[in-house]
Amino acid sequence: MKKPVCLALLFFCLTGTLALAQTTKEEPTIYTVAPGDTMWGLSKRFLNDPYYWPNLWAANPTVGNPHFIYPGQRIKVYSDRIEIEEAPRPNRPQAAQPPAGKAPVAAAEEPAAAREFKITGSEGFLMERQIVPAGVIVSTHQNRAIVGTDDIVYTDVGRANGANVGDRFTVYQKMGAVSHPVTNEILGERVLPLGELQLSEVDPKVSKAIITKSYQEISAGAFLLPYQERRVHVPLKAADRDLVGYIVESQTGNQALAVGDAVYLDLGTAHGLKAGNLLYIVRDVKPDQRYTLAKIEQLPVEVIGALVVVRTGVNTSTALIVKCVDTVYRGDRVELKKAR
């Protein structure tokens, strides 16, 4: 009799454990993504940990970057994690049935709203060898050392250069050559915008101009490039290839960087990089061989941030750091990942 009694007790214990597991299984909270939501914000809101977003990327391979979540997407919020469902297709009215004998017309796909970044034009760039200045400020009115808005300057741009009265230029200053942190190759010169000018009188080889805007002090020797609109919106673009590069310099020249800082990369259009691409900032994790039975060559990289490309040159580009969970440094590696 003892054996059947023991089996019965074991059966009731097992069924009780299963029932308890079923009753204690956590039910997720369902949240629908609203306009303006980001992974960073969702992590902070639901997990009280904005630094969870790299794990959120890793756990959701269908989401390419922290901004590619869409209004209408549903997320499942657990106590220790967030799971994101695939973005739903936009609802469209039922197409009318075509007349007999005619093929149905395919409904047009409604594109998702473009995600954009606004830039101010103060980010600067690396001037590569193939970029030739349009001219130089050769003198200022009354030989003043520094000029600003509404002041008069003189340039070496004339009719021989195809210039006309009313032509506009952006004024830049060279800040020094930039070398690659790994190869020491000179990539170009760091340049920053100083202001804008417009030609008021044009002679064959020289011209008179008025400074229409100044962001920083302008002096003789500053060079000119054809005018470009400063404040523009850069839409995010999905990557169509994998790339690996480096942060080679920053706009400020600082070594330690954070969100909002402009940086320069050793990747450009020659590599297939496009304005609007989002890259991860990554750092290698070194294994401690003392605790391994066999030698470990490499561990998964640590994702410490993300940046968006806002301007591309041939071999270099300008980008803005949009997220980071640790201090970013000149020389950090960046990776562009094609959507799988």
From TrEMBL:
Residues 87-107 are annotated as: Disordered. Residues 92-107 have a biased composition (Low complexity). Residues 29-77 form the LysM domain. This is Peptidoglycan-binding protein LysM. CDD domains: LysM. Keywords: Signal. Residues 1-21 form the signal peptide. The lineage of its organism: Bacteria, Pseudomonadati, Thermodesulfobacteriota, Desulfuromonadia, Geobacterales.
